[in-house]
Automatic annotation (TrEMBL), chains A, B:
Domain annotation NAD-dependent epimerase/dehydratase: ranges: 3-209
UniProt name for this protein: SDR family oxidoreductase
Coiled-coil annotated spans: none
Pfam family, one: Epimerase
Keywords: Carbohydrate metabolism, NADP
Species whose genome carries this gene: Aquibium carbonis
GO molecular function: oxidoreductase activity
InterPro entries the record matches: DenD, Epimerase_deHydtase, NAD(P)-bd_dom_sf
Length: 324, 324
């Protein structure tokens, strides 16, 4: 099987690559070729008997996408994108990468013109939704994004559905919830604290909680995000139907419940490293974020997330800390 | 006041131009400049004391949009577009005109960079919605288009909302229902019969009704469509809020009720010219079309359609037949 991953140097891209290498293939089919692409050089793992390439560049550049699909990969994971905060600060870069890059890839596939019809798995986001929200956001809630990033993801979803309907490729869009616990260091994203309040104390470091414990949000682990991608690659297109974009499941918990889970998993000495220090700016942003999703279609199609925040913490410990 | 109309040579564009000329302005402000643009030459009316220009070309061409907004029009009516049937047959043309053309116009405004922030009125369509539908389609029904045209209109709506949110212009998207009675001749559009069964008998001509009388659909007259555009030009942006795309009101009637209205307005001799001749192909298409809309937001913002199909027929007689 030939596989292409765009955005392969990002956190999810790296973990997806590791998973495919560990499994030795995708859906039981061994890897013949694995092509990794990103704006910075992705790490190319060694896979015995397979061709592995690492490519660097801007997907929106002329002919870049043609070159990426030259080997006619059967499965394309399109993860490449500028993140929410950057797309808001740099309007032109956001549209260039998230819209033009996505469209360039889709167009290259359409224009191949030799009967090529790959499975395309596109990582969308719950940022396609905008406040105000009901208590539980149904699968058919209307998308009214309140960020440029969410707008670009919504346009990607619309293109994916149309290109799939026309038979140019067989697309699945997966709307990821907040990924938690993100490995690495705290960053300036408003959502950073959801991961930091778990990751930093587990590493013996103090951390600030900038919002009230009552804040409710939906999370999935990096391991689950990779699981969604692998599952999406193998789905029967007819079973999905014309509505190609699916809201992924996750664990809906309050920040207080996150902390209780941390105490159950790691003890009171760890939880004591969390210092509550309300930040009105962060809270005012977070109040406009979606809380809980129904995700009925995705669950019915077999997408599985953790069943508790305890499991999310244990996944983080196993995947990030056991190696260290 | 300086006004720009794209798609000015189309049916709605011509009627909008006539209305503005007849009113001598827009929202009580006299016309200083009226710029008309289309892919075919629009007719430039003579307006005493005003500059009128008629421009021809492809909006997606390099620099075309810059040239269009060179005079910094305060109101831009963006009507240009390839229609549904053509966008489905010619995929590339549909995306070029409906997506690239729209984006080129929006980008030209953004890049003006001199504080320019016009009101942009964009004609979207109920084609952004796709079956299955509830009995009454609410304002917040999720858009899942089932045509490339509907996809392109949805993308235009998303861009309009984001460019407005960012303050690059002050946009209003209006989703038009089926325009009925369309003047002119029957065409190959599946929706053609909705107008033909009124227009042709009124002109003394026989006509075929290809669907059962029970088919329910929502209509607005060309006069109302122009009224929506003029009303949208004068709306207070703050009153609209961040959800910039509005489903216009209309008259929801069955085909049987259309024919009853025709009999009331024009008599039995006219109605006898309608021959029922079911066409399974047309019916199978029409069954996937939306029927009735709530349009609560648009009505609350002052958009007004006819209150009966009788009024739609009378508008057609006054606007199209009284002159003949």
């Amino acid at each position: 099987m030939r596989i292409l991953i765009t955005g392969a140097a990002g956190m999810v891209g790296r973990k997806l690559t590791e998973r495919i290498v560990r499994d030795g293939g995708l859906g039981g089919r061994p890897i013949a070729e694995l092509h990794l692409h990103d704006i910075v050089p992705p790490h190319a793992p060694d896979i015995p008997g397979a061709t592995v390439s690492a490519m660097t560049g801007d997907l929106a550049d002329e002919n870049a996408a043609d070159w990426l699909i030259a080997s006619r990969p059967a499965v394309i994971f399109h993860l490449a994108g500028v993140v929410s905060g950057e797309a808001e600060v740099d309007f032109e870069k956001g549209y260039r990468v998230n819209l033009d890059g996505t469209r360039a890839l889709f167009e290259a596939i359409r224009q191949a013109g030799d009967g090529y019809c790959p499975r395309v798995v596109f990582t969308s986001s719950i940022a396609v939704f905008g406040a105000p929200f009901p208590d539980v956001i149904p699968d058919d809630f209307h998308p009214t994004p309140l960020t440029s990033y969410g707008t670009q993801k919504l346009i990607g979803e619309a293109l994916l559905a149309d290109y799939s309907r026309r038979g140019f490729f067989d697309g699945v869009g997966i709307r990821l919830p907040t990924i938690c616990v993100r490995p690495g260091k705290p960053n300036k994203a408003a959502s950073s604290f959801f991961s930091s309040i778990i990751r930093e104390p587990l590493a013996g470091l103090e951390v600030v909680l900038p919002v009230p414990r009552s804040v409710l949000h939906t999370h999935a682990s990096p391991r689950s995000a990779v699981g969604f991608l692998v599952h999406a690659a193998g789905l029967d297109g007819d079973a999905i139907g014309p509505r190609r974009n699916l809201t992924m499941p996750g664990v809906a918990v309050t920040v207080g419940e996150q902390i209780e889970a941390l105490e159950r998993v790691a003890g009171n000495n760890v939880v004591r490293l969390i210092r509550e220090e309300p930040d009105e700016t962060v809270w005012s942003i977070v109040q406009n974020w979606p809380t809980r999703f129904a995700s009925e279609r995705a669950r019915a199609l077999g997408f599985v997330a953790e069943d508790s925040f305890d499991a999310i913490i244990r996944a983080h410990i196993e995947d990030e800390m056991a190696q260290a």
